[in-house]
Amino acid sequence: MPRAVREQQMMDAAVRTFGQRGYRAASMDEIAELAGVSKPLVYLYLNSKEELFTACIRREAKALVDAVRAGTEPGLPADRQLWSGLRAFFTHTAEHPDGWSVLHRQARTHGEPFAAEVTAMRDEIVAFVTGLIGAAAREAHHDPALPGRDVAGLAQALVGAAEALAGWANETPGVSAKEAAATLMNFSWAGLENLMDGRPWQPPDRAADRVT
């Protein structure tokens, strides 16, 4: 078997083990047995448990980012682009629950350098969503200066909500990727649509509050 194929087979076993058992509880013996290879071969290919876990994080992060980018259809209205991107996100996390567990739970709770790898992935997705919403807002307002920090904050909130909802959907029987995406669209699009239409929500005036 070619080295690259064998290495991916080991990483598949590692993602499954890390995702289900956790980083600390997972053992190289378990991973080797699941992959159908000897433990020395795992060490030969992937050096150490820490390096193997890092390689798993990077592979799963790239796969998720690629899925979101591929799922978004350029040229569609803003709501359709967001909808297609969210469906791609939730479809991927539902189809790869162990990979999502590695990214969303394991990597974030075991310190550096693992958390930094996930942060880099999240920053890439946030930047992509910021660009998507920003382009739509600028087009809607015919103003290249829009929307600035408002859209950046919305993108951060949207990605955070998607992460939390993916964890809930994977643990709740009967919740489909389409349903999870629709839930987040219903939660987020009203605010985004108002921004596109130049009607952002404004906090009440504090002086007026004190008078009343």
Please render the helix and strand layout as text:
Elements: H1 3-21, H2 28-35, H3 39-46, H4 49-71, H5 78-95, H6 97-109, H7 114-141, H8 149-171, H9 177-196, H10 206-211
Helix pairs in contact: 1-2, 1-4, 1-6, 4-5, 4-6, 4-7, 5-8, 5-9, 6-7, 7-8, 8-9
Task: Please describe what this structure looks like.
With 212 residues, the protein is mainly α. 78% of the residues lie in helices and 0% in strands. The protein contains 10 helices and no strands. Helix 4 packs antiparallel against helix 5. The longest helix has 28 residues. The chain starts with a helix and ends with a helix. 32% of the residues are buried. The mean pLDDT is 85.
Sheet having the most strands: none
Secondary-structure class: mainly alpha
Radius of gyration: 21 Å
**What is the count of DSSP helices, taking H or I runs of 4+ residues?**
10
Short description:
With 212 residues, this protein is mostly helical. It has 10 helices and no strands.
Identify the notable features of this structure and list them briefly.
single chain; 212 residues; mainly alpha
